[in-house]
Amino acid sequence: QVQLVESGGGLVQAGGSLRLSCAASGRTFSSYALVWFRQTPGKEREFVAAINWNGDTYYADSVKGRFTISRDNAKNMAYLQMNSLKPEDTAVYYCTVRLRYYRISPVDYGYWGQGTQVTVSS
Fold first, then answer.
1. pLDDT (tens digit per residue) in 4-57
2. Would you say 20 and 36 are in contact if contact means Cβ atoms under 8 Å apart?
3. Cross-strand partners of 82
4. CB 20 within 8 A of CB 35
C-alpha cells in the first residue's frame, strides 16, 4: 500500500512558477518510478512528467523545457518545478508511482494522491 500526498498548487499569473511536491509512504520508494499527471474537467488524465527508479526523466511535449521533475529518495519526495506557466497548464495535478518504469497511460497506476489545483491566469 502506498499513500501519496501532493502539495504546492495555487494561483499564479502566466509566466510565473510553482513547485509541486509529492510525499510518498513506503519503504521501497527508491524502486518506484514517480509520475505526474494532470486533469481538467471533462478530460482524461494526461501524462506530464516521469522519473524512473534509475533517474531517467521523461516529459510531455507540452511541458518540455518548462517543467522539471526530480526526486529525493532520502525524504520519499518527488517534485515538479513548473516555470513559464501558461493558462493551458491549469489543471489538478496528481502524482503516482509504479515499480521501476513509468507508463504513459493512467490506467497502469493503482495509487493516486488527492491532487493539487494549479490555476494560471492570463
1. 999 999 999 999 999 999 999 977 899 999 999 999 999 999 999 999 999 999
2. yes
3. 18, 67
4. no
Question: Do 93 and 21 touch, CB atoms closer than 8 A?
Answer: no
Residues whose CB falls within 8 Å of the CB of residue 107, separated by 6 or more in sequence, listed in order: none
3-state secondary structure of 71: strand
Q: Which three cell numbers stand for residue 11?
A: 494561483
Which residue's entry shows cell 494532470? Answer: 38
Query: Which phi and psi (to 5°) does residue 25 adopt?
Result: -90, 170
8 Ramachandran zone, left/alpha/beta (phi>0; psi -120 to 50)? left
**Number of Cβ atoms within 10 Å of the Cβ of 35:** 26
Looking at residue 87, the DSSP 8-state letter turns out to be G
